[in-house]
Amino acid sequence: MEKLYISITEGLISGDNEKTEELTQQALESGLQAQDILDKALLKGMEIVGARFKNGEMYIPEVLKCARTMHCAIDVLAPYTSENDTNSRGSIVIGTVQGDLHDIGKNLVGMMCEGAGFEVIDLGIDIKAQEFVKAVEKNGADILAMSALLTTTMPKMVETLHMLEKAGCRENLKVMIGGAPVTEDFANEIGADGFAPNAASAVDKAKEFMEEIESPRAAA
Amino acid sequence: MRQLDPTTFRPRLRVLNREQMLSIHTAALEILEKTGFRIEHDPTLKRLVNSGCRRGEDGFVRMPSYLVEEALRSAPRCITLYDQAGHAFMPLTDGNFFYGTGSDTIFTYDAHTGERRRTVLKDTGNFARLVDALPNVSFSMSMGNPEDVPIERIYVHVFAEMVRESNKPIVFIADSGTDIEKIHQIACVVAGGEEALKEKPFILNYSEAISPLQFPRNVVEKLVFCAEKSIPICLPSGCNAGGGGPVTLAGALALGIAENFAGLVIHQLVNKGAPFLFAPNVSVLDMASSVVSYGAPEWSLTQAALADMRDELYGLPIWAFAGSTDSKILDAQAGAESMFSIITAMLCRANLIHDVAYMEFGSTSSLESLVLADELIAMSRQFVEGIPVNPSTLALEVVERVTKSSENATFLADEHTFENFKEAHFLPNLLDRRQYEVWAADGAEDTYTRCNNEARRILEEHRVEPKPTGILKEIESILSEQ
């Protein structure tokens, strides 16, 4: 069985959709649990991909290809997962703030987070504070990620944080912000929970958030 | 009869043949005709449709090629920028090159403490003052995106600061059709009225469409405003290969040109003959860090390709970048990358060359880097000027005189050397050529330290020709309006 996990992980790392789907199907047929396949083969593969990327052994297009392969495999698992299974690491609502239509960075963060096992609800571009709040409430999101490229749209981040507060959904939510003009100081100043200078750091930050969210849950 | 000197060959870079240029050009036109672009400005959308564009059900506007050809014919071949006192200063045409700073860095290095910190309004003033003093840097951009000014008024305030601290031309950023009006108002005060500014513009607007193929409302507002007021404008998009456009340079170039031409057509439909720079910006998205690289050789290559196309096909003045780096500090990487783009921009005949002294792909700026770039531009210029060949430079008489002299004559002490050495050689100021012992005895300063000393010296000593009090008062009152 271990061997099958390793093969799935290898398929994932090489970005081979067909092979990985096939092996995942095989694993299910041989009686392995969907949750185990996800944890022990797929997420493990993405951990390795993440580590290689950080070491400079892999480049972004390769990471994104692996992320796509991971999705194909998750689709194979989907019919076999029960409601009790946590088939994602956590959920992230993401978008560019009102007035900002620059979405390359935001898309990259979304794809990398998905690749790392998060459920990503991408609202797109030019998102009003109210729309962020609605999406967070509707999806019971763990994390909100906002991005801005134009300095002039940064105040919309502040507005969104105020609205979240007002709507009473700030307490169980982690907020991270990013984009070229956004700094760590700005994030602290406006009361966001974190800042990420690039997509890989955003994934790390999201994982950190989930640990913080889950540890009090575990304690309770 | 004295014969003509051989024409001096000016070294230049050429990176495309005619077939490649035509293929890229055709691809750009095809993008406009078949894929089209999105635009968020109803009056302009109407104008485009009335002029022959078609809006598809997908919301994309398709543009026929003849509109591009017409716009290329009506846009001027030379744009002259004036200094703030009304003297012709930068004729943007042919192979004339003018270097200047960039805009909107979030951080800068404090010249006194060496600390990397958030930019403040005073930094914009310092950069403008340095530009005013440096002989090889011709125009200012804001450099900083200051944290001590309300965000919605940043661009008006940095513009006023550059007016206060320099008399060279200004390339400015605005957010939308609202703040650009204020900036224009201030520029009119400086130039002595709207007509005077139109006659002798010292300002040029830099705006950006969004790749791929997107023209947001605020960008179109600025484009239309500049066309109406005849403010020279350049409108690149962020078509970096792999991010905003295809990863392959030819495709990214075609997309960048298409986007730039969509802007050109809109501009010329509003006001035929208004000044517009050819300005696609095609860098690369770094595949490891995901930043848009400012040290990439590909950007210099695409720039040279665009300059070839300008020379061969379009004829418009061309916009470029140089003197920037992805390095975080002024180190060997910074020097190598800055010089690479400075000399290639000059060799490829780019006209208006911005972003000098950007560090960290434009997130950080450095006064030291600007001072160094001034010297690197001079060094490149020495190379690009080529080798003048004529009786005086061949100096046959001098060879005869020195070699046959009975008095131990040397070339070094010859009158011909005395008369010509300053033009014949590049004489560095910051690049150190002294022997080790001399350098060590003089404090063993590295490049950064010498540049830092020079930047601080200039900021202390340089006096900017002050503007009349009346003008400054008027500017203050425009700034204090809500």
Written description of the protein model:
The complex is a heterodimer of chains A (220) and B (482). Chain A has helices spanning 2-13, 17-29, 34-54, 60-77, 104-115, 129-139, 155-166, 184-190, 199-219; strands spanning 91-97, 119-127, 143-147, 174-178, 194-195. Chain A is α/β, with parallel strands linked by helices and 220 residues long. In chain A, strand 4, helix 8 and strand 5 (194-195) form a beta-alpha-beta unit. In chain A, helix 1 packs across helix 3, helix 2 runs parallel beside helix 4 (60-77) and helix 3 (34-54) packs antiparallel against helix 4. Chain B is of the alpha/beta class and 482 residues long. Chain B has two domains: 73-384, Trimethylamine methyltransferase-like (TIM Barrel, Alpha-Beta Barrel); 391-424, no CATH class. Chain B is built from 18 helices and 17 strands. In chain B, the strands form six sheets. Chain B has a four-stranded mixed sheet with strand order 8-7-17-16. Chain B has a four-stranded parallel sheet with strand order 9-10-12-13. In chain B, strand 4 (79-82) and strand 5 form a beta hairpin. In chain B, 51% of the residues are buried. The mean pLDDT of chain B is 96. Chains A and B meet through helix 5 of A and loops of B.
What labels describe this entry?
heterodimer; A: alpha/beta; Rossmann fold; five-stranded parallel beta sheet; 5 strands; 58% helix; globular; B: 482 residues; alpha/beta; TIM Barrel; 2 domains; four-stranded parallel beta sheet
Q: TL;DR?
A:
Chain A is an alpha/beta fold. Chain A has helices at 2-13, 17-29, 34-54, 60-77, 104-115, 129-139, 155-166, 184-190, 199-219, and strands at 91-97, 119-127, 143-147, 174-178, 194-195. Chain B has helices spanning 18-35, 42-50, 65-74, 121-133, 154-165, 179-191, 194-199, 217-229, 249-270, 297-314, 332-347, 367-384, 391-394, 396-404, 415-424, 436-441, 447-461, 469-480, and strands at residues 38-39, 54-55, 61-62, 79-82, 88-92, 98-99, 107-109, 116-118, 170-172, 203-206, 214-215, 233-234, 276-277, 319-321, 352-354, 358-359, 364-365.
